[in-house]
């Protein structure tokens, strides 16, 4: 028989953790794959392999978590965490991503597209932190936003080639790392 202390000390999974981690992993993989094309194969291939392993690990951990929940015959309380507020944020993000990228291209700076994407993706995590009540999203948002701003800074200094790595590859690796962190043992937010 399990003691009450053991039972209450177990962390409760965050609602939507698995789907959120899978989304972070998939977009992280895309960020790395798309933005690492200019890197030399001895650098790019290990990055792609690491990103692929990270994504596969996220998927496997998600499957394990779903099975554990099914065995316990309960799911995290409250149903789907992806309500109206979530979709509103995603809609605003989509408009900002496409509108901003088109504007930058029309102004003659298509190389800043990835920096803009990182900036918008990063800032959207601040709203998601509030919606999901997950402080770690503020950390994720801050890191990716900084990578986006750094891309603009690199361009202002006349450095175009590193933008894809700083704003793209590093953002992708960060998304993958946070997707994996969602499954780290320890205390999680309600």
Notable characteristics:
globular, disordered N terminus, membrane, transmembrane helix, mainly alpha, 190 residues, 0% strand, single chain, 7 helices
Furnish the topology, listing elements before pairings.
Elements: H1 4-9, H2 17-35, H3 41-71, H4 84-106, H5 113-132, H6 135-156, H7 162-181
Question: How would you characterize this protein structure?
Answer:
With 190 residues, this protein is mainly alpha-helical. It has one domain. Helix content is 74%, strand content 0%. It contains seven helices and no strands. Keywords: Membrane, Transmembrane, Transmembrane helix.
Q: Biggest sheet, in brief?
A: none
Q: Number of helix segments?
A: 7
- Poorly predicted parts: 1-10
Q: What pattern of helices and strands is seen along the backbone?
A: HHHHHHH
State the separation between the terminal residues, measured CA to CA.
26 Å
Strand content: under 5%
Class by alpha and beta content: mainly alpha
- The total of beta strands comes to 0
Transmembrane segments: 21-39, 45-63, 84-101, 113-132, 139-157, 163-184
Keywords: Membrane, Transmembrane, Transmembrane helix
Provide a compact summary of the structure.
By secondary structure, the chain is mainly alpha-helical. It contains seven helices and no strands.
